Amino acid sequence: MKRTGTTKTMRGAVLIAALFVLPVLFVAASLLFGRYPLPVRDVLTAIIRPGSVPLATKVAVWQLRLPRALAAAFVGASLAVSGAAFQSVFRNPLVNSGILGVSNGAGFGACVAIVCFGGGVWTYLLSFVFALAAVVLSWFAGRISRVTTTITMILGGTIVGAFFSALVSIMKYIADPYSQLPSITFWFMGSFASVGYSHLLALIPMTLGILLVFLSRWRLNVLSMGEREAAALGLDVRRCQFLVIGGATLCTAAAVCISGTIGWVGLVIPHIGRMLIGNNNQKLVPVSISLGACFMVLMDLLSRTLTGAEIPIGILCALIGTPFFVYLLKKTRGGNWT
After folding, report:
1. Sign of the torsion angle spanned by Cα atoms 93, 99, 100, 103
2. Which of 103, 124, 146, 182 could form a disulfide with 98 if both were Cys (CB 3.0 to 4.6 A apart)?
3. How does pLDDT run across 57-111, given as a tens digit for each residue?
Protein backbone atom coordinates (compact mmCIF):
# COMPACT_ATOMS: atom_id res chain seq x y z
CA MET A 1 0.00 0.00 0.00
CA LYS A 2 2.81 2.37 0.87
CA ARG A 3 4.60 1.61 -2.40
CA THR A 4 1.36 2.20 -4.36
CA GLY A 5 0.84 5.57 -2.68
CA THR A 6 4.43 6.57 -3.43
CA THR A 7 4.00 5.57 -7.07
CA LYS A 8 0.85 7.67 -7.40
CA THR A 9 2.60 10.62 -5.80
CA MET A 10 5.51 10.31 -8.24
CA ARG A 11 3.17 10.06 -11.20
CA GLY A 12 1.33 13.13 -10.02
CA ALA A 13 4.58 15.05 -9.63
CA VAL A 14 5.70 14.02 -13.13
CA LEU A 15 2.33 15.11 -14.58
CA ILE A 16 2.50 18.51 -12.86
CA ALA A 17 6.08 19.04 -14.07
CA ALA A 18 5.12 18.07 -17.63
CA LEU A 19 2.16 20.46 -17.61
CA PHE A 20 4.46 23.36 -16.76
CA VAL A 21 7.46 22.35 -18.86
CA LEU A 22 5.75 21.43 -22.15
CA PRO A 23 4.33 24.90 -22.96
CA VAL A 24 7.68 26.48 -22.09
CA LEU A 25 9.46 24.07 -24.43
CA PHE A 26 7.01 24.79 -27.24
CA VAL A 27 7.45 28.55 -26.81
CA ALA A 28 11.24 28.14 -26.74
CA ALA A 29 11.19 25.95 -29.85
CA SER A 30 9.07 28.52 -31.72
CA LEU A 31 11.92 31.04 -31.31
CA LEU A 32 14.24 28.83 -33.39
CA PHE A 33 12.18 28.36 -36.52
CA GLY A 34 10.81 30.66 -39.19
CA ARG A 35 11.81 32.17 -42.48
CA TYR A 36 15.02 33.23 -40.72
CA PRO A 37 16.20 30.03 -38.92
CA LEU A 38 18.31 30.56 -35.82
CA PRO A 39 20.63 28.14 -33.96
CA VAL A 40 20.03 27.49 -30.29
CA ARG A 41 23.20 29.35 -29.30
CA ASP A 42 22.11 32.56 -31.06
CA VAL A 43 18.64 32.45 -29.49
CA LEU A 44 20.05 31.94 -25.99
CA THR A 45 22.54 34.75 -26.54
CA ALA A 46 19.80 37.05 -27.85
CA ILE A 47 17.72 36.40 -24.72
CA ILE A 48 20.57 36.72 -22.20
CA ARG A 49 22.70 39.40 -23.93
CA PRO A 50 20.66 41.09 -26.66
CA GLY A 51 23.40 43.61 -27.40
CA SER A 52 25.92 40.96 -28.46
CA VAL A 53 23.95 39.52 -31.41
CA PRO A 54 23.25 40.92 -34.89
CA LEU A 55 20.30 43.28 -35.16
CA ALA A 56 18.38 40.85 -37.38
CA THR A 57 18.66 38.12 -34.75
CA LYS A 58 17.60 40.45 -31.95
CA VAL A 59 14.56 41.69 -33.92
CA ALA A 60 13.54 38.16 -34.92
CA VAL A 61 13.66 36.87 -31.34
CA TRP A 62 12.43 39.83 -29.30
CA GLN A 63 10.16 41.76 -31.66
CA LEU A 64 8.65 39.11 -33.93
CA ARG A 65 8.64 35.64 -32.41
CA LEU A 66 8.55 35.99 -28.62
CA PRO A 67 5.43 38.22 -28.32
CA ARG A 68 3.36 36.14 -30.74
CA ALA A 69 4.52 32.86 -29.14
CA LEU A 70 3.44 34.13 -25.70
CA ALA A 71 0.14 35.38 -27.13
CA ALA A 72 -0.47 32.04 -28.86
CA ALA A 73 0.24 30.10 -25.66
CA PHE A 74 -2.15 32.18 -23.57
CA VAL A 75 -4.87 32.24 -26.26
CA GLY A 76 -4.71 28.45 -26.65
CA ALA A 77 -4.81 27.94 -22.89
CA SER A 78 -7.73 30.37 -22.52
CA LEU A 79 -9.87 28.84 -25.26
CA ALA A 80 -9.20 25.28 -24.08
CA VAL A 81 -9.87 25.90 -20.39
CA SER A 82 -13.02 27.92 -21.11
CA GLY A 83 -14.29 25.12 -23.34
CA ALA A 84 -13.67 22.58 -20.58
CA ALA A 85 -15.43 24.82 -18.05
CA PHE A 86 -18.49 25.42 -20.23
CA GLN A 87 -18.80 21.74 -21.12
CA SER A 88 -18.89 20.85 -17.43
CA VAL A 89 -21.22 23.67 -16.34
CA PHE A 90 -23.69 23.10 -19.17
CA ARG A 91 -23.23 19.30 -19.13
CA ASN A 92 -22.97 19.28 -22.90
CA PRO A 93 -19.99 17.81 -24.84
CA LEU A 94 -20.80 19.93 -27.91
CA VAL A 95 -20.38 23.25 -26.10
CA ASN A 96 -17.36 25.37 -26.94
CA SER A 97 -15.82 28.57 -25.60
CA GLY A 98 -18.09 30.74 -27.76
CA ILE A 99 -21.40 29.22 -26.62
CA LEU A 100 -22.64 32.46 -25.00
CA GLY A 101 -22.08 34.58 -28.10
CA VAL A 102 -18.55 35.70 -27.24
CA SER A 103 -17.11 35.11 -30.71
CA ASN A 104 -19.97 36.78 -32.58
CA GLY A 105 -19.99 39.71 -30.17
CA ALA A 106 -16.24 40.16 -30.56
CA GLY A 107 -16.63 39.89 -34.33
CA PHE A 108 -19.19 42.67 -34.38
CA GLY A 109 -16.92 44.86 -32.25
CA ALA A 110 -14.03 44.25 -34.67
CA CYS A 111 -16.29 45.11 -37.62
CA VAL A 112 -17.38 48.38 -36.00
CA ALA A 113 -13.74 49.26 -35.29
CA ILE A 114 -12.62 48.53 -38.86
CA VAL A 115 -15.53 50.27 -40.60
CA CYS A 116 -15.95 53.28 -38.32
CA PHE A 117 -12.48 53.86 -36.84
CA GLY A 118 -10.09 52.31 -39.35
CA GLY A 119 -9.10 49.39 -37.11
CA GLY A 120 -5.93 49.72 -35.04
CA VAL A 121 -6.25 49.63 -31.26
CA TRP A 122 -10.02 50.12 -31.58
CA THR A 123 -10.28 46.59 -33.00
CA TYR A 124 -8.94 45.02 -29.79
CA LEU A 125 -10.85 47.36 -27.48
CA LEU A 126 -14.28 47.09 -29.13
CA SER A 127 -14.03 43.34 -29.76
CA PHE A 128 -13.29 42.81 -26.06
CA VAL A 129 -16.14 45.11 -24.94
CA PHE A 130 -18.73 43.57 -27.26
CA ALA A 131 -17.62 40.04 -26.35
CA LEU A 132 -18.39 40.77 -22.70
CA ALA A 133 -21.62 42.54 -23.71
CA ALA A 134 -22.75 39.44 -25.61
CA VAL A 135 -22.44 37.29 -22.49
CA VAL A 136 -24.33 39.82 -20.38
CA LEU A 137 -27.12 39.88 -22.98
CA SER A 138 -27.13 36.06 -23.04
CA TRP A 139 -27.64 36.01 -19.28
CA PHE A 140 -30.52 38.49 -19.50
CA ALA A 141 -32.05 36.56 -22.39
CA GLY A 142 -31.85 33.44 -20.25
CA ARG A 143 -33.76 35.21 -17.48
CA ILE A 144 -36.84 35.89 -19.59
CA SER A 145 -38.54 33.00 -17.81
CA ARG A 146 -37.34 34.52 -14.46
CA VAL A 147 -35.41 31.34 -13.75
CA THR A 148 -31.89 31.08 -15.13
CA THR A 149 -30.91 27.49 -15.84
CA THR A 150 -28.12 26.04 -17.96
CA ILE A 151 -30.61 25.33 -20.75
CA THR A 152 -32.01 28.86 -20.80
CA MET A 153 -28.47 30.29 -20.80
CA ILE A 154 -27.52 28.14 -23.80
CA LEU A 155 -30.69 29.27 -25.58
CA GLY A 156 -29.91 32.86 -24.65
CA GLY A 157 -26.40 32.49 -26.02
CA THR A 158 -27.73 31.02 -29.25
CA ILE A 159 -30.18 33.91 -29.66
CA VAL A 160 -27.60 36.58 -28.90
CA GLY A 161 -25.03 34.89 -31.14
CA ALA A 162 -27.50 34.88 -34.03
CA PHE A 163 -28.31 38.55 -33.38
CA PHE A 164 -24.65 39.60 -33.47
CA SER A 165 -24.09 37.40 -36.52
CA ALA A 166 -26.78 39.40 -38.32
CA LEU A 167 -25.12 42.65 -37.23
CA VAL A 168 -21.79 41.36 -38.58
CA SER A 169 -23.46 40.65 -41.92
CA ILE A 170 -24.79 44.22 -41.99
CA MET A 171 -21.32 45.60 -41.28
CA LYS A 172 -19.86 43.46 -44.07
CA TYR A 173 -22.55 44.73 -46.43
CA ILE A 174 -21.76 48.40 -45.79
CA ALA A 175 -17.96 47.92 -45.59
CA ASP A 176 -15.73 49.13 -48.38
CA PRO A 177 -15.14 46.05 -50.58
CA TYR A 178 -11.55 47.02 -51.43
CA SER A 179 -10.10 47.86 -48.01
CA GLN A 180 -12.44 47.25 -45.08
CA LEU A 181 -14.09 43.98 -46.18
CA PRO A 182 -10.76 42.11 -46.67
CA SER A 183 -9.66 43.26 -43.19
CA ILE A 184 -12.90 41.93 -41.66
CA THR A 185 -12.58 38.62 -43.50
CA PHE A 186 -8.97 38.18 -42.42
CA TRP A 187 -9.85 38.98 -38.79
CA PHE A 188 -12.44 36.21 -38.74
CA MET A 189 -9.84 33.72 -40.00
CA GLY A 190 -7.64 34.29 -36.93
CA SER A 191 -4.01 35.33 -36.86
CA PHE A 192 -1.16 36.44 -34.60
CA ALA A 193 0.67 38.26 -37.39
CA SER A 194 0.15 41.74 -35.95
CA VAL A 195 0.68 40.89 -32.28
CA GLY A 196 3.24 43.02 -30.43
CA TYR A 197 4.11 43.71 -26.83
CA SER A 198 1.33 46.31 -26.52
CA HIS A 199 -1.22 43.58 -27.22
CA LEU A 200 0.10 41.48 -24.34
CA LEU A 201 -1.99 43.62 -22.00
CA ALA A 202 -4.72 41.12 -22.89
CA LEU A 203 -2.72 38.53 -20.95
CA ILE A 204 -3.91 40.17 -17.72
CA PRO A 205 -7.63 39.34 -18.14
CA MET A 206 -6.68 35.98 -19.69
CA THR A 207 -4.59 35.10 -16.65
CA LEU A 208 -7.34 36.24 -14.28
CA GLY A 209 -9.97 34.21 -16.11
CA ILE A 210 -7.78 31.09 -16.23
CA LEU A 211 -7.05 31.48 -12.52
CA LEU A 212 -10.76 31.73 -11.64
CA VAL A 213 -11.53 28.53 -13.53
CA PHE A 214 -8.47 26.77 -12.11
CA LEU A 215 -9.40 27.61 -8.51
CA SER A 216 -12.98 26.42 -9.15
CA ARG A 217 -11.99 23.18 -10.88
CA TRP A 218 -13.13 20.87 -8.03
CA ARG A 219 -16.52 22.60 -8.02
CA LEU A 220 -16.90 21.75 -11.72
CA ASN A 221 -17.08 18.08 -10.75
CA VAL A 222 -20.07 18.86 -8.55
CA LEU A 223 -21.73 21.18 -11.07
CA SER A 224 -21.42 18.55 -13.80
CA MET A 225 -23.70 16.31 -11.72
CA GLY A 226 -26.60 18.72 -12.18
CA GLU A 227 -27.93 21.77 -10.35
CA ARG A 228 -30.20 19.89 -7.96
CA GLU A 229 -27.53 17.38 -7.01
CA ALA A 230 -24.96 20.14 -6.52
CA ALA A 231 -27.34 22.13 -4.31
CA ALA A 232 -28.13 18.98 -2.30
CA LEU A 233 -24.40 18.57 -1.64
CA GLY A 234 -24.27 22.07 -0.17
CA LEU A 235 -22.78 23.93 -3.14
CA ASP A 236 -23.88 27.50 -3.83
CA VAL A 237 -24.78 26.78 -7.44
CA ARG A 238 -25.46 30.35 -8.60
CA ARG A 239 -22.27 31.72 -7.08
CA CYS A 240 -20.15 28.92 -8.55
CA GLN A 241 -21.74 29.31 -11.98
CA PHE A 242 -21.09 33.04 -11.84
CA LEU A 243 -17.41 32.53 -10.97
CA VAL A 244 -16.79 29.81 -13.56
CA ILE A 245 -18.75 31.42 -16.39
CA GLY A 246 -17.30 34.83 -15.54
CA GLY A 247 -13.75 33.49 -15.57
CA ALA A 248 -14.25 31.52 -18.78
CA THR A 249 -15.88 34.52 -20.46
CA LEU A 250 -13.12 36.89 -19.38
CA CYS A 251 -10.30 34.78 -20.77
CA THR A 252 -12.23 33.94 -23.96
CA ALA A 253 -13.07 37.59 -24.66
CA ALA A 254 -9.46 38.63 -24.12
CA ALA A 255 -8.21 35.79 -26.33
CA VAL A 256 -10.57 36.50 -29.21
CA CYS A 257 -9.80 40.23 -29.22
CA ILE A 258 -6.13 39.65 -30.12
CA SER A 259 -6.36 36.48 -32.21
CA GLY A 260 -9.67 36.72 -34.04
CA THR A 261 -12.11 33.84 -34.26
CA ILE A 262 -10.59 30.39 -33.64
CA GLY A 263 -13.40 27.94 -33.06
CA TRP A 264 -11.81 24.49 -32.97
CA VAL A 265 -9.68 24.66 -29.83
CA GLY A 266 -12.35 25.23 -27.19
CA LEU A 267 -14.47 22.37 -28.48
CA VAL A 268 -12.00 19.52 -29.01
CA ILE A 269 -8.93 20.11 -26.81
CA PRO A 270 -10.92 19.38 -23.60
CA HIS A 271 -12.13 16.12 -25.15
CA ILE A 272 -8.57 15.14 -26.01
CA GLY A 273 -7.72 15.81 -22.37
CA ARG A 274 -10.58 13.57 -21.26
CA MET A 275 -9.33 10.78 -23.51
CA LEU A 276 -5.91 11.04 -21.91
CA ILE A 277 -6.66 11.49 -18.20
CA GLY A 278 -10.41 11.04 -17.66
CA ASN A 279 -13.30 13.28 -16.57
CA ASN A 280 -11.96 14.58 -13.26
CA ASN A 281 -11.90 18.36 -13.68
CA GLN A 282 -9.22 18.73 -11.02
CA LYS A 283 -6.86 17.15 -13.55
CA LEU A 284 -8.71 18.07 -16.75
CA VAL A 285 -8.51 21.83 -16.23
CA PRO A 286 -4.69 22.03 -15.92
CA VAL A 287 -4.26 19.45 -18.70
CA SER A 288 -6.52 21.52 -20.98
CA ILE A 289 -4.50 24.65 -20.18
CA SER A 290 -1.24 22.90 -21.08
CA LEU A 291 -2.56 21.12 -24.18
CA GLY A 292 -4.26 24.27 -25.47
CA ALA A 293 -1.10 26.34 -25.06
CA CYS A 294 1.10 23.74 -26.77
CA PHE A 295 -1.34 23.20 -29.61
CA MET A 296 -1.78 26.89 -30.39
CA VAL A 297 1.98 27.61 -30.31
CA LEU A 298 2.51 24.69 -32.70
CA MET A 299 -0.24 25.92 -35.03
CA ASP A 300 1.22 29.44 -35.00
CA LEU A 301 4.65 28.03 -35.85
CA LEU A 302 3.23 26.03 -38.74
CA SER A 303 1.16 28.97 -39.99
CA ARG A 304 4.30 31.05 -40.57
CA THR A 305 6.62 28.30 -41.83
CA LEU A 306 4.61 25.95 -44.08
CA THR A 307 4.31 28.35 -47.01
CA GLY A 308 5.74 31.65 -48.18
CA ALA A 309 2.53 33.42 -47.19
CA GLU A 310 1.23 33.07 -43.64
CA ILE A 311 -1.78 30.76 -43.33
CA PRO A 312 -4.62 32.05 -41.12
CA ILE A 313 -4.41 30.10 -37.90
CA GLY A 314 -8.16 29.45 -37.64
CA ILE A 315 -8.05 27.56 -40.94
CA LEU A 316 -4.91 25.65 -39.97
CA CYS A 317 -6.35 24.59 -36.61
CA ALA A 318 -9.33 22.97 -38.31
CA LEU A 319 -7.34 21.41 -41.17
CA ILE A 320 -4.70 19.79 -38.95
CA GLY A 321 -6.61 19.40 -35.71
CA THR A 322 -9.67 17.60 -37.05
CA PRO A 323 -7.86 14.60 -38.66
CA PHE A 324 -5.69 14.27 -35.55
CA PHE A 325 -8.77 14.23 -33.33
CA VAL A 326 -10.44 11.58 -35.53
CA TYR A 327 -7.27 9.47 -35.29
CA LEU A 328 -7.14 9.85 -31.51
CA LEU A 329 -10.85 9.04 -31.24
CA LYS A 330 -10.28 5.83 -33.19
CA LYS A 331 -7.15 4.98 -31.22
CA THR A 332 -8.82 5.32 -27.83
CA ARG A 333 -12.25 4.08 -29.03
CA GLY A 334 -13.90 7.12 -27.57
CA GLY A 335 -11.86 7.17 -24.37
CA ASN A 336 -13.70 8.90 -21.52
CA TRP A 337 -16.16 10.79 -23.68
CA THR A 338 -18.80 12.59 -21.66
Report:
1. positive
2. 103
3. 888 889 889 999 999 999 999 999 999 999 888 888 778 888 888 989 999 999 9
